[in-house]
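ARCHIVE CARD
CATEGORY: sequence design from structure
SOURCE FIELD: tokenized fold
FIELD CONTENT:
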């Protein structure tokens, strides 16, 4: 891959254009880049540290070149990792859109922020990331997907402390900022003209001009905000791309970068996942959550998904270039992650909401400022750029990391969260053993798609324990020897002691959290046929009206 630039006129504004070399060595023009005339550097106070959260939606951990994937084309994410740190054991504790974003918003684990599955984010929490940073003079802005809810009376998203928002949630009927813009740009047009749905496993090239693609829209607004912001105050900017969440609809030029015959095959277990080979729908077909589809179908699905990641990567590169042109890399901390992954047919599963690696394991990259960080802002960093860490991290760690980088540590302020600042690991250098870091992370999800998909899990990134609540059955995977989760070793006598140790850890967690006899009784994990979408810690001022996404007709899946 190499990059060069040329210019073209888009809506009256001159932009540079990204040029990629495809597999045949031919140039293919890309999307709009920042203005060809470089913006002036932004002058900020010497002590100011900006923080930027770059997010993709539904992006699994392994679709990056830097993650060791020889097929993935992600030069810009690879560059971020080479200029920062790649955390290879990063997870989403409740791997669907809304509860994952509640963890980012609050710094809390599922039981403490109250969302145990895919429900409604509360309208307000006692402590929220944007509100906290705003209180110390930070300009806060959110672009792209929030999934916080849409206020139809005020015709805007629920702000959760962000001083400004420009939203595309990808929710039919919401009429968010992108939807309004599209209607004005193309009256009577169909933004879903590609013919795919938001729960689709199929993929095909975007049917409209690339200018209208939601990824391009989010990227352009991020560039505009960074270019036009003349405020010298430090800022917190969240840029949250909706893709590669379905529909898998990248521009054709990007999809053509991938040969469908060379797409990685789906992972299949030694037998534990056979029961999922029958198609089960959560929405009308093609919205399956489990089932075996042909390789001819799956290879195109994966081609389009990978290309959707590459398209997001292009725009992340443009944001990076804008930061460089404005002189902001010297004093800006960047985190890239995703709310959850996508199974992509692994173990016959699709989308998210599962404890397995494709769903719960997410990318997590931290790039610290070129000028480093002073001690009062979480520094100094004592590791080399390009390092990797196997410490287990989670989305709840973003809030405390940004707070410490701002010079206003949550712990120093007496604010209690469950997450921890990953800057502690960067300060420790090679001596991370002296850092009081968690040994494992808790994960869970209430009923999603089907009453049988209802679970709790623990992992340290080396072993993973799963308790399937509906059937009261267990799974155990050795992620070090078996990262693709081919072999469920829970019934192996050789791992009986290991299984009991992880089970007891989950018993201890439930007991410490006071979950009650429906969860644990006399030291035993209880079977839970019915779900519980919210914990007692969910903010009381919000009306709990959401039900679990349950399809009782699919409750007949056989468990061993």
């Amino acid at each position: 891959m190499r990059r060069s630039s040329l210019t073209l006129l888009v809506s009256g504004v001159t932009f540079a254009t990204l040029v990629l070399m495809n597999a045949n060595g031919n140039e293919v023009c890309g999307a709009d880049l920042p203005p060809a005339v470089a913006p002036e550097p932004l002058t900020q106070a010497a002590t100011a540290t900006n923080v930027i959260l770059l997010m993709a939606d539904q992006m699994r951990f392994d679709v990056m070149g830097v993650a060791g994937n020889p097929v993935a084309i992600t030069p810009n994410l690879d560059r971020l990792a080479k200029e920062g740190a790649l955390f290879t054991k990063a997870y989403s504790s409740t791997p669907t859109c809304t509860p994952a974003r509640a963890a980012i918003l609050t710094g809390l684990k599922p039981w403490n922020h109250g969302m145990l599955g895919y429900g409604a984010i509360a309208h307000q929490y006692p402590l929220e990331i944007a509100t906290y940073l705003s209180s110390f003079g930070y300009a806060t802005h959110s672009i792209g997907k929030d999934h916080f809810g849409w206020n139809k009376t005020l015709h805007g998203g629920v702000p959760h402390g962000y001083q400004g928002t420009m939203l595309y949630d990808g929710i039919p009927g919401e009429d968010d900022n992108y939807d309004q813009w599209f209607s004005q740009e193309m009256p009577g047009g169909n933004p879903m003209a590609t013919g795919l749905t938001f729960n689709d496993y199929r993929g095909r090239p975007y049917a409209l001009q690339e200018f209208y693609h939601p990824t391009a829209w989010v990227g352009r607004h991020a560039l505009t905000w960074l270019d036009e912001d003349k405020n010298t105050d430090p800022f917190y900017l969240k840029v949250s791309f909706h893709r590669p969440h379905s529909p898998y609809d990248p521009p054709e030029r990007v999809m053509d970068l991938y040969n469908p015959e060379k797409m990685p095959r789906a992972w299949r277990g030694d037998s534990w996942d056979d029961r999922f080979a029958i198609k089960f729908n959560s929405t009308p077909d093609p919205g399956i959550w489990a089932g075996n589809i042909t390789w001819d179908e799956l290879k195109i699905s994966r081609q389009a998904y990978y290309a959707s990641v590459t398209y997001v990567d292009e725009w992340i590169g443009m944001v990076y270039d804008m930061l460089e042109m404005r002189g902001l890399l010297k004093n800006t901390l960047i985190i890239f992650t995703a709310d959850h992954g996508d199974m992509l047919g692994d173990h016959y599963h699709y989308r998210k909401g599962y404890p397995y690696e494709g769903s719960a394991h997410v990318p997590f990259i931290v790039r610290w400022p070129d000028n480093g960080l002073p001690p009062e802002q979480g520094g100094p960093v004592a590791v080399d750029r390009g390092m990797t860490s196997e410490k287990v991290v989670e989305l709840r760690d973003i809030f405390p990391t940004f707070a410490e980088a701002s010079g206003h540590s949550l712990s120093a302020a007496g604010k209690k969260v469950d997450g921890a600042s990953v800057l502690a690991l960067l300060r420790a250098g090679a001596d991370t053993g002296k850092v009081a870091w968690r040994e494992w992370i808790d994960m869970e999800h209430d009923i999603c798609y089907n009453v049988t998909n209802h679970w709790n899990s623990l992992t340290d990134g080396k072993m993973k324990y799963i308790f399937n609540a509906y059937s009261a059955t267990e799974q155990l995977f050795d992620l070090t020897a078996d990262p693709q989760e081919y072999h469920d070793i829970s019934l192996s006598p050789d791992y009986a002691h290991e299984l009991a140790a992880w089970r007891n850890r989950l018993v201890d967690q439930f007991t410490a959290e006071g979950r009650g006899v429906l969860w644990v009784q006399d030291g035993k994990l209880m079977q839970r046929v019915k779900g519980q979408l919210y914990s007692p810690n969910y903010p009381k001022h919000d009306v709990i009206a959401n039900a679990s996404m349950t399809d009782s007709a699919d409750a007949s899946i056989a468990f061993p």
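CARD ANNOTATION: The longest strand covers residues 235-244. The mean pLDDT is 89.
SHELF: design records, drawer C
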